[in-house]
Amino acid sequence: MSTDPTTARYSVEGLTALSESLLHEAGIEKAHARAMTARMIDGDLLGHRTHGLAFLPTYLDRIEGGHIGSGGELETLHDDGATAAWRANRLPGAWVMGEATDLLLDRITDRAVATVTVADCSHIGCLQSYLLPFTERGLLVTLTATNPGVASVAAPGGTRGVITSNPIAMGIPTRADPILIDQCTSVGSNALFEGYAVRGERLPGKWLVGADGIPTDDPTVLRADPPGTIQSLGQTDFGYKGFGFGLMSEALSIALPGYGRRSRPDRFGQGVFLQVLDPGRFAGSDTFLDEIDHLVGSVRDDPGAAGATIRLPGERALAARRQQIRDGVVIGAEVLARLTPRANRSSTPLPTPL
């Protein structure tokens, strides 16, 4: 059991029942509710708390506002076997990503590269959560997604947001645990800074820039009028590097799907780029794994600086996932407090702490 009075551990089954019930009560089809719930809980399992069940109240608000739909079908804009382009028309992002995953796992069996782009789906959640089905098959996967209705990151030296936090994820198979990269091209996600603002806390560093162009640790500048912006990775000295990766994400997940900023969309849709490569159709799977395992071994062999811990991307997340599947998922008290009124209105029982 958790010793932190602000958290408790819950079974995956109990949390799943709560989330699926609330989503279905709000009007989401059962298959869509299952997909959304699985991705949120996996976000918590991997330690991405901002995109775990903490996001469920936001999803419920968006459903009530008509920003997440559960009816209709995916619209195919293009499909030549190796590539498919879809328009999702605000269907639940987690369900759409499940369909894209199934499609790519099927199509990669007889080709080297397979790609899906998605225009205008709803929020897909934690990117890292989508990587394991591919790495478990020995496949290399790249995923990036962004929201063309949000502009919270300025160009280096700028004061007006032109892109947003633009996460990029990659799953790299090894002969042991995969390498799971999932990081924003800015210092942090919009949800991260909103969390600090809601809690009334200052940031650990001057990760934002006020509308006056001065770096600050005050998260409320993003809510100001005019708003501040999030610094790109590298911040003041080297932010042009992070901003460059942010532009790459825009090209892949906005321009390729054809769902971009020109039409000034609202803040509730996303564009997605998902691509899978089969190393067996390049220099060969064994050669690929030999090289990756050698690289991993070089990281492991480093004695490290005094007091430092050397980890590969995804290592801590996978350890947290295994531990929480065994011992229960850690959920903050404030998350259930936000869900309690909705559960009471629909007579949905809250899960019991372990």
Question: Can I get a quick summary?
Answer:
By secondary structure, the chain is α+β, with helices and mostly antiparallel strands. Helix content is 37%, strand content 18%. It has two domains: 275 residues, Malate/L-lactate/L-sulpholactate dehydrogenase, NADPH binding domain (Ribosomal Protein S8, Chain: A, domain 1); 43 residues, Wheat Germ Agglutinin (Isolectin 2), domain 1 (2-Layer Sandwich).
Q: What are its keywords?
A:
about 350 residues; alpha+beta; Ribosomal Protein S8, Chain: A, domain 1; Wheat Germ Agglutinin (Isolectin 2), domain 1; 2 domains; 7-stranded mixed beta sheet; 3-stranded antiparallel beta sheet; 10 helices
Total domains, how many?
2
Strand order of the largest sheet: 2-3-4-13-5-8-9
Provide a count of the helices.
10
Number of strands: 14
Query: What is the straight-line distance between the termini?
Result: 7 Å
- pLDDT below 50 for ≥5 consecutive residues: which ranges? none
**Structural class per helix/strand content?**
alpha+beta
The geometry reads as globular
Q: What is the CATH C-level name of the largest domain?
A: Alpha Beta
Using the 3D structure, state the CATH architecture of the largest domain. 2-Layer Sandwich
CATH-level-4 superfamily name of the largest domain? Malate/L-lactate/L-sulpholactate dehydrogenase, NADPH binding domain
Major beta sheet summary? 7 strands, mixed
